[in-house]
Design brief:
With 108 residues, the protein is an alpha+beta fold. The chain is built from 3 helices and 4 strands; from the N terminus they run ββββααα. The radius of gyration is 20 Å and the shape is elongated.
């Protein structure tokens, strides 16, 4: 993973073209980049993010932020019930219970 100015990029190797190619993964806009080395892909990623931000500024539009903090989650009715009961018995809201469960899984 690559990080620059709060944006995250991922990349892969294309053996047919013999290049590294990537995409900024945490915005709705399609922002891609490529390079022939790790150093090159890092620079291309940073340049792509910088160009995206520069373009947004020139057009006087806010850069996209693809994460609102709201997650639409679908689970079975039984998991919903068990989660609610567990949250309630520990004095937490269902939202707080799920948020803590997600955080534990991320940190594991």
């Amino acid at each position: 993973m690559l990080k620059h100015k709060g944006y995250t990029g991922s990349f892969e190797y294309d053996s047919e073209e013999d290049i590294l190619f990537g995409r900024v993964i945490d915005v709705g806009a399609v922002i891609t980049f490529y390079g022939s080395s790790i150093k090159g892909i890092r620079k291309a990623f940073k340049d792509s993010v910088d160009m995206y931000l520069k373009t947004c500024a020139a057009k006087n539009v806010a850069p996209q932020k693809s994460f609102s903090g709201n997650i639409r989650l679908r689970v079975s009715p039984e998991i919903h019930k068990q989660s609610f009961v567990s949250a309630s018995s520990s004095g937490k809201s269902l939202n707080q219970f799920i948020q803590e469960a997600l955080l534990r899984e991320i940190q594991a």
